[in-house]
Amino acid sequence: MTPKFQRPKIGLIGSGQIGGQLALLAVQKQLGDIVLFDIAADMPKGKALDISHVLPVEGVDARISGTSDYADLKGSDVLIVTAGLPRKPGMSRDDLLDTNVKIMKSVAENVKTYCPDAFIIVISNPLDAMVYTMAKITGRPKTPVVGMAGVLDSSRFRFFVAERLGVSVADVTAFVLGGHGDDMVPVVPFCSVGGIPLTQLLSQSEIDAIANRTRQAGGEVVALLKTGSAFMSPASSAICMAESYLRDKKRVLPAAALCEGEFGLHGLHVGVPTVIGAGGVERILDVKLSSSDQAALAASAEHVRDLVLEVDKRL
Ligand code: APR
């Protein structure tokens, strides 16, 4: 008998540090069946088996499998891509471009063949260049390819604010826009604590210090870990986006989405406020920024444009 209902299928391309964490969180949130893919032969099968043994403890029914065959990703509703090298201490995300463009090109060609309908969330770095590579090769229209950076950068900002003020993280909202690099733009007027503008609670110099720490936070983690980069928080952020899509939650989330005029940006995937629901990136909230934030966003987008030109030379 053909089953009447099916769980959503979640494909994870890259089953390393972030990939494994993505699978665990997807199980804990009961998002659906999971396929872990990696070019490494047995490792994704090992992670799938390990995570399968979590299911009885969590009381979750799902199929978890590991593979190195792209055909097994067919029918995925959502793909989360982490294939690629992470940085080492002292490296910038942009230093990964040469290696990771080659990896993303091969991933994107296979995604185009096997998963033409999936909603794609890219995490690999340099993020903005990787989203562009995926969108260009798959030829996807506007909504189905998006980059995860803003949820994480905003979460870092929110955490530092909550820690500084001694308040619940749940009450701190923030938006960090622009590219996923040192010129990302924490939009301070959009940051509030229980609805109170942050500027009423912290001095400008304290806010600047938090903004700077947010920009450097990924590097701070890399320097402490010594091998690899942040993996729990990127996974959590991408799962937040996948959940909003699969459950049609229409969360308002900053994400690297294709701008076609929004914020004065044209033909670029840049971190902007989006609404993510069953339609993918259903909307970009093209709101007015202060002139200094708008200028900072434009400068960050110029950096993304430079990266895109570098990608084009390599494709
Ligand atoms: N196809 C599929 N997987 C690949 C490919 C490929 N062509 N090339 C490499 N991989 C896999 C590796 O085998 C590895 O298991 O990608 C995985 C990456 O995992 P990690 O090295 O553990 O890196 P991770 O910490 O998960 O970060 C992945 O996300 O945040 C970014 O900067 C980070 O670019 C990095 C990516």
Could you characterize what this model shows?
The chain is of the alpha/beta class and 315 residues long. It has two domains: 9-147, NAD(P)-binding Rossmann-like Domain (Rossmann fold, 3-Layer(aba) Sandwich); 150-314, Lactate dehydrogenase/glycoside hydrolase, family 4, C-terminal (L-2-Hydroxyisocaproate Dehydrogenase, Chain A, domain 2, Alpha-Beta Complex), CATH 3.90.110.10. Helices cover 42% and strands 20% of the residues. It is built from nine helices and 14 strands. The protein has helices at 17-28, 43-52, 55-58, 97-114, 127-138, 150-165, 204-225, 232-246, 291-314, and strands at 9-13, 33-37, 64-67, 78-81, 119-122, 145-147, 172-173, 176-177, 185-186, 192-193, 196-197, 251-260, 266-277, 280-284. The strands form four sheets. The protein has a six-stranded parallel beta sheet. It has a three-stranded antiparallel beta sheet with strand order 7-10-11, covered by helices on one side. Strands 12-13-14 form a three-stranded antiparallel beta sheet. The longest helix is centred in the last third of the chain and has 24 residues, at 291-314. It is globular. Adenosine-5-diphosphoribose is lined by residues 13-19, 38-40, 82-87, 96, 100, 103, 106-107, 123-125, 228-229, 231, 234.
